[in-house]
Give the backbone structure.
Amino acid sequence: MEIVRDGPTLALDGEFDVRSTGDARRALYEQLDVYDVVVVDLSGVVAVDVTALKVLAVASREASRRGGRLRLRGCGPHVMRMLHMTRLIRLVEVERTPVSA
């Protein structure tokens, strides 16, 4: 998985799973050390597992503890489905994308 930092945004690209959670966790906490609001762009994620989503949920809780926020952007149907199935959707903030007419 590729991780790209752009200001407060952390863009993840590729397979976000148990093999990449260590790198993602480190990058998330580095962002939280610098920014109050961190946006994780998941639009490039092609596969996700429960372990990866738990990393996001724990980082979101840590952001709140510090007085900040962690937002997920670009959640594809597969990510949203996993968030709902695991009920982690209750623990993370997901940016809503406007519906086109």
Q: What stands out?
A: Strands lie at 2-6, 9-16, 37-48, 69-73, 93-94. The helical segments are 21-34, 50-65, 77-86.
